[in-house]
């Protein structure tokens, strides 16, 4: 049975060729990252459109060009214990289009064991990462449930929404 063991290479999970590859973070993670590094940049990504004037942000895109700001010269994470859930769960990723758990084939370890993964259980194969992925699923489901009660629908942020008042979801809904 395949069991994932991170090489701590920082090659794929901490280096980004395009903005679309950058991690998604919850509002409280965004605030923590901003405290740790004032130059961190974020853009709303997954939102709830509340009305014609307000947007509730569920997740932000952490805009990273190239290497993560928190990698040291040796390529090691300097915030390893407090990094965001999206970093903790990699190479597991959540398909937001169909709400499925996926495995990134960009990771060298995954790439070298792709055949083993076809028949493996993600919980057993990714014991350190799987609980973090489940936490993300759980949070999204809880926020979706509460947002639906209010008549809000989850969607991807559009540039035309930038004139709206942006409110972090944890300031609107307490989970």
UniProtKB/TrEMBL annotation:
Any one Pfam family match given in the protein's UniProt record, by short name: CxxCxxCC
Stored PANTHER family: PUTATIVE-RELATED, YKGJ FAMILY CYSTEINE CLUSTER PROTEIN
UniProt-recorded name of the protein: YkgJ family cysteine cluster protein
């Amino acid at each position: 049975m395949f069991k994932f063991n991170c090489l701590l290479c920082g090659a794929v999970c901490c280096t980004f060729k395009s903005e679309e590859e950058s991690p998604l973070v919850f509002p409280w993670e965004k605030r923590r990252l901003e405290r740790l590094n004032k130059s961190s940049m974020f853009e709303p990504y997954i939102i709830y459109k509340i009305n014609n004037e307000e947007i509730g942000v569920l997740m932000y895109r952490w805009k990273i060009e190239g290497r993560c700001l928190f990698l040291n010269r040796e390529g090691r994470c300097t915030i390893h214990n407090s990094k965001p859930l999206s970093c903790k769960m990699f190479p597991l990723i959540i398909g937001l289009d169909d709400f499925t758990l996926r495995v990134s084939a960009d990771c060298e370890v995954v790439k070298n064991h792709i055949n083993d993964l076809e028949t493996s259980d993600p919980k057993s194969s990714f014991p350190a990462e799987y609980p973090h992925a489940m936490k993300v699923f759980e949070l999204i489901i809880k926020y979706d449930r509460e947002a639906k009660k209010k008549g809000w629908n989850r969607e991807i942020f559009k540039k035309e929404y930038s004139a709206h008042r942006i409110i972090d979801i944890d300031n609107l809904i307490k989970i």
